[in-house]
Design a protein that fits this description.
This protein has twelve helices and eight strands. The chain is of the alpha/beta class. It has one domain: TIM Barrel, CATH 3.20.20.70. Helix 7 packs across helix 9. The protein is globular and about 45 Å long. The N terminus is likely disordered. It binds 1,3-dihydroxyacetonephosphate. The site of 1,3-dihydroxyacetonephosphate has 14 residues, from strand 8. 1,3-dihydroxyacetonephosphate binds next to strand 8.
């Protein structure tokens, strides 16, 4: 089997902050200024991404460019059509114009609350890659699935369906975040062993559908109650290439600490 630490390729780690539906424009300017100030580190060795709400993208972009910051911008969602009568939706070219390098797709909150399916995730991934934006695709199981010992099958299926028909080269430059639903916003993070097992499995599924080279290159993150206190335990795991951070990304000091930990350990 592929994965489980057998893949030794050096990958640039990522710490990505998902702000979810938090921060007005004024608050977003303030938080991004603090993050930009706190995260003044060695940039070639790590990618730092912040994903504010759509309404904050422009003002956060202004802060980061004023500071000549290397922090990258990401969105939290996208629609797959390029323009037209799709009230309330945002296209890839709109994100691209705001210099978004990344976009989260298939977050469990979008799947659970807004009915996003694997097929929709697949269309979004394809549209993003066609438009030059890297997807951060989320997958993860509920507690029921974990208790039924179906976790690996479940996330494997989400990965297979999400990336169906996508070129290996495009998969290689993308990101997958393993976010068990029961660990999101609960303060109950997965154990490093559980996270490593899931991330190694994700990598092995990528090897199966896109080949070993893509599996060696794709970054796989852990997300779910990651904080500076527990990040030290996740980062040494061989198949975990960083974190997708919710709550702790809204605190500039905690977020900067996470970046520092990833930089030191990965
Ligand atoms: P928390 O870090 O708040 O658990 O959220 C994780 C998450 O959903 C990131 O996308």
């Amino acid at each position: 089997m592929f994965g489980a630490g057998k893949v030794s390729e050096k990958r640039v780690p990522i710490i990505a902050g998902n702000w979810k539906m938090n921060k007005t424009t004024v608050e977003a300017v303030n938080l991004s200024q603090h993050i930009s100030f706190e995260c003044d580190m060695a940039w070639e060795a790590i990618e730092v991404v912040i994903c504010p709400p759509f309404t904050d993208l422009k003002s956060v972009f202004n802060v980061l460019s004023f500071d000549h910051s290397s922090i990258k911008l990401g969105a939290q969602n996208v629609f797959w059509e390029d323009e037209g009568a799709y009230t309330g939706e945002i296209s890839v070219s709109m994100l691209k114009e705001l210099t978004c390098d990344y976009c989260i797709v298939g977050h469990s909150e979008r799947r659970g609350i807004f009915g996003e399916t694997d097929e929709m995730v697949n269309k979004k991934i394809k549209a993003l890659l066609a438009g030059g934006v890297r997807p951060i695709m989320c997958c993860g199981e509920s507690l029921e699935v974990r208790d039924a010992r179906q976790t690996l099958e479940f996330i494997g299926e989400q990965v297979r369906r999400g990336w169906d028909g996508v070129d290996a080269e495009d998969i290689a430059k993308s990101v997958i975040a393993y976010e068990p639903i029961w660990a999101i916003g609960t303060g109950r993070a997965a154990t490093p062993e559980q996270a490593q097992e899931a991330c190694a499995h994700i990598r092995s599924v990528i090897a199966e559908i896109a080949g070993e080279d893509a599996a060696k290159k794709i970054r796989v993150l852990y997300g779910g109650s990651m904080k500076p206190e527990n990040a030290k335990l996740f980062m040494p795991e061989p198949d975990i290439d960083g974190g997708l951070i919710g709550g702790a990304a809204l605190d500039s000091k905690a977020f900067a600490e996470l970046v520092e930990i990833a930089l030191k350990i990965k």
